[in-house]
């Protein structure tokens, strides 16, 4: 019997479906916000889609995370009639679904013109650029997420207030907590192994009911798939246990925000090893790594909306809560936006610490990788490294990050580098989607405003 991760070709995909005698197969793709959208497809339809592709309503590229339609996008909208866009199934994405007996899951991606704004295709485009430059890119993502003893219904009934976390108080790296909740932890680890996004580290973080999962390193393209699937099915697993997991950047003012850090490195395609490590240089930092770092640093303010894509993302980017506020870097310094992790030819890498947990993994990895490649292309050099607490130091104005999603979207729209790296179609569409997100927020009155102004003003 063929195993899902052995599937490489269209014929392999057909064979495994026939071996399992499946009448239906689950197919899903990821929208602009990294939300997986999909459906069950009959065997006959699935086989036809493998051979010829299939149509998927392009509204999933034209609405937000609550299915509200953008009113400012050119690619799709009422003016186009929301037609089907061509989609291709990715055979080698085949995975078991641990909750559905022998059911299989396949990732799909948009094709043809829709590929220009498809997040998964964007990451593939950046990975191809790296290969054209002679590099293989590797990446790994780690996520913090809170778990609550709630259901989607109970959370809404409570107005998302006074929710009960899985465990109380602050207790990072707790053996007590992971032993008490060993069954849940084991379910997470087993699911990750079965679905091929293996977790190399899982522990409690600082805060009530918060966990951190570090997904094992892989190629940058595979890392995007693995992170997107992990976020989706971690929420599935939680809800199947009568719990809820959230990857919001910051759900409470009382606790630190939730990160989605990206570890990234380059190796030479010619087999000569790490492009980041040079034993003759201080901290092992090669000239290529310096240029890559410089690109990430210089373009961070311009690409911020890809990494921090929600209004809530900017509630996390405040001093003193383990999130950077300027495009800074340092050697093994967790107060900076970019952390050089010195090591050897195998472990030398950069941790892109800016990213919140709510980012679309395809876009966060694409931004972190593309900006670094651009630095190599331009032969840029980074600013001086930060020593000590980056929050307490003054940094040049050009390293300051946009403070709101709207400002970040404007920086993206006017970024020549972004347009060169990602294409005009993607930049225009994604910036419009973030402007929409900000405008939707402005329509609402927050609890903070009511508490501050209702009686006094």
Quick recap:
By secondary structure, the chain is of the alpha+beta class.
**Global morphology:** globular
> Count of DSSP helices?
14
> What order do the SSEs take from the amino end to the carboxyl end, as H and E?
HEEHEEEEHEHHHEEEHEEEHHEEEHHHHH
- Beta-strand fraction estimate: 15-25%
**Mean of the pLDDT scores?**
96
For the record, give the distance between the C-alpha atoms at the N and C termini, rounded to a whole number: 71 Å
* Low-confidence segments: none
Q: What's the Cα radius of gyration?
A: 22 Å
Total strand count, please? 16
Residue share in helices? 25-40%
Provide the structure class: alpha+beta
> Main sheet?
10 strands, mixed
Key features?
457 residues, 19% strand, single chain, alpha+beta, 16 strands
Descriptive overview:
The structure is a single chain. The chain has 457 residues and is α+β, with helices and mostly antiparallel strands. It is built from 14 helices and 16 strands. Strand 5 (95-96) and strand 6 (104-110) form a beta hairpin. Helix 8 crosses helix 11 and helix 12 crosses helix 13 (424-442). The chain is globular.
Task: Reconstruct the topology from this structure.
Blueprint lengths: L9 H11 L3 E7 L5 E7 H10 L1 E4 L26 E6 L5 E2 L7 E7 L8 H14 L2 E14 L3 H6 L17 H6 L1 H13 L4 E6 L5 E6 L2 E2 H21 L3 E3 L13 E9 L4 E2 L12 H21 L5 H4 L12 E3 L6 E4 L7 E4 L8 H18 L26 H9 L2 H7 L1 H19 L4 H7 L4
Parallel strand pairs: 1-6, 14-15
Antiparallel strand pairs: 1-2, 3-4, 4-6, 5-6, 7-9, 7-10, 7-11, 7-12, 8-9, 12-13, 12-16, 15-16
